[in-house]
Amino acid sequence: MSASTTIEQRVNDALPWIVDIRREIHRNPERSGQETKTQALVVARLKELGVEVKTGFYGTGVSGVIRGSRPGRTVGLRFDMDALEMQELNEHEYKSAVPGMMHACGHDGHTAMGLGVARVLMGMRDELAGTVKLVFQPAEEDAQSGGGAQYMIRDGVLSDPSVDAMVGMHLWPDLELGSVGTKPGAMMAGSDPFIITVKGKGGHASLPHRTVDPIYIGSQIVSSLQSVVSRNVDPFEAAVVTVGVFQGGSRYNVIPETATIQGTVRSFDEGVRMLVRDRVIAIAEKTAEALGGSADVDYRLTYPPLVNDPGIYAIVKASVATELGAEKYVEVARPAPGGEDFAFFAKAVPSAYLFLGYRKPGETPVQPHNPRYDFDEAALGVGVRTMVRCALDLGRGE
Ligand SMILES: [Zn+2]
Ligand SMILES: [Zn+2]
Q1: What is the Å distance from ligand 2's center to 365 Cα?
Q2: Are residues 213 and 359 in the same domain?
Q3: pLDDT digits (tens, 9 = 90+) for 327-378
Q4: Whether 90 and 165 share a structural domain
Q5: Is residue 2 part of a domain?
Q6: Same-domain pairing of 382 and 235
Q7: CA 80 – ligand 1 centroid, Å
Q8: Distance 160 CA to ligand 1 centre (A)
Q9: Do 165 and 135 lie in a common domain?
Q10: What CA–CA distances, in Å, run from 273 to 106, 188, 240, 374?
Q11: What pTM was estimated for this model as a whole?
């Protein structure tokens, strides 16, 4: 290919190879943190392309470094690799070969796009200013273990060379195939679970004055938690406090010793996130104390809100318009209430996160985490074009 070959032409040339890789990964889905076959595939393909490869980031994490011909910034591009413990119900020829495991969030597509970006950029090093670091991440879906992003950062993935800016992307059902979107500020929610164990003193249902009733205390806590959003959070900010589990007791005529409340908090701003955490803990502990019992609060800060950097947002927005056409850029109206551990990268370096559309006109797209999830593979070409253009523009600092 000559220097005048467009990104679109290069991506079209690579697309069958990218689709083959996507299907191979789709057939072999792997659990969060156990992406060994996927890692081997990523390493093998990167080495075939001549990319500098490093491993040893949180087990199966991989980085690939591509150096441009001119000085510039180091741009990180992140691709997640893990699948979900669920049975695929599709019958296509690349259906999961692993019972009870499925790529139902599109991370097979993300990983294949990362390799596509590597292939295209290796052919464009003459035009590349700076360095591109491809980050293949394990365990995005495993919020309970903290996700893979923060541990890849701990293991040094953002240094040597030091990453100046970062871009992440997710296949997205709410945008049309061919479009890419983002927004300024919060892009996805912080997602923090909590477990409150209310301790009382059990006894006979007919003698409540000789007990401390954890069900009554728990009821007051559940009610008072509703005041956090309505009375403590700024009305121009947003948060969710949901209790999904309230358990206690084993018989109608026994006051139990304990009751358990479990819930989740969603927030879009780090200050709001900490405010809600402090209020949930205080309400649980102080309400229980006031009523003669006690409460242990296990409040886990898992994924922070994913907030786009204003400068990187502006550059990637322009990159999308340049590469795909201004009409294909979508300014996303609201942050999504799901969590995404790219948020840890966005906290570490100025970053932006993009949604990659796969909805077809007139069709209802299958949502992620559905056993019939699938997407049009043409979206992969759009995603690779976008990422390559972002890397070139961010590398130049434009
Ligand atoms: Zn997911
Ligand atoms: Zn996902």
Answers
A1: 15
A2: no
A3: 999 999 999 999 999 999 999 999 999 999 999 999 999 999 999 999 999 9
A4: yes
A5: no
A6: no
A7: 10
A8: 30
A9: yes
A10: 28, 13, 10, 33
A11: 0.92
